[in-house]
Amino acid sequence: MTGDTTSLTAPGRTETGAPRSAPPFVVLLGTDYAGKSSALTELAERAPSWHMVSLDDAFLAPGHSLIGRLRRNLVADVLPDLHDGYSLDFMVTLLQTATVHLRDSIERSPHGAPVLVDSYYYKILAKCRLAGVDSHPLFDWWRSFPQPRRVVFLEVSTATAWERSGEGAEANPLEHYGEQPDRASFEKYQSDLREALLDEVRHLPVTVVEEPDDVSRTVQLLGEVMGRDIG
């Protein structure tokens, strides 16, 4: 093989070959069913000039539909057969596609647009840890990604999250312990997830939003944070 080679762990590059620099951004974080998607959807309507970075289908460009398909295949095919048909390493490798897409999407944000990122790699990494992957070479790489100016952490009680999951009917295997969700396994997982998430962002400024009464209040608080930290 001839020509230059680029390390998989090298920073992103522009078309001219220069390293990309990430714009300032804020991360919206929380456990499952904390209301992040609802807040992002309302923000997209209220602040169309903001750049929303998320793995949700509603925020994926048509050319990035692969990311959504991979996420759905992870839930439908990999997680039910984890350990037997697929290894933890395979799961982490598949999740790697999501973390790199999030990083690339931040770096490619429109110039001057306020950037808000849904969970970033923090939630993916925390869930890998709860799945039994305490350490992995990819984790060090993810932690080398650009860091946000601030994290806004949405609190939600485990009881509210359980209700929003349809009492477990909508929960996937990365949202509870054990083969089938019950309230105890779901709430224990969500409590451990909260602890893992806050541990992962302990080096960053974190604004904790107590469980809000409605989405509009969350959106208002996000606007205040973005105005202060992004400008």
Can you tag this structure with a few keywords?
globular, 231 residues, 45% helix, alpha/beta
Question: Would you kindly provide a written description of the structure presented here, covering whatever features stand out?
Answer:
The chain has 231 residues and is of the alpha/beta class. Helix content is 45%, strand content 10%. It has helices at residues 36-46, 65-78, 88-107, 120-130, 137-143, 158-164, 183-200, 215-229, and strands at residues 25-30, 51-53, 115-118, 150-154, 206-209. Helix 1 (36-46) crosses helix 8.
In brief:
This protein is of the alpha/beta class and 231 residues long. 45% of the residues lie in helices and 10% in strands.
User: Secondary-structure element order, as H and E?
Assistant: EHEHHEHHEHHEH
The proportion of residues in beta strands is 5-15%
Alpha carbon gyration radius: 18 Å
How is the quaternary structure best described? single chain
The N- and C-terminal alpha carbons lie at a distance of 47 Å
Point out poorly predicted stretches.
Answer: 1-10, 13-19
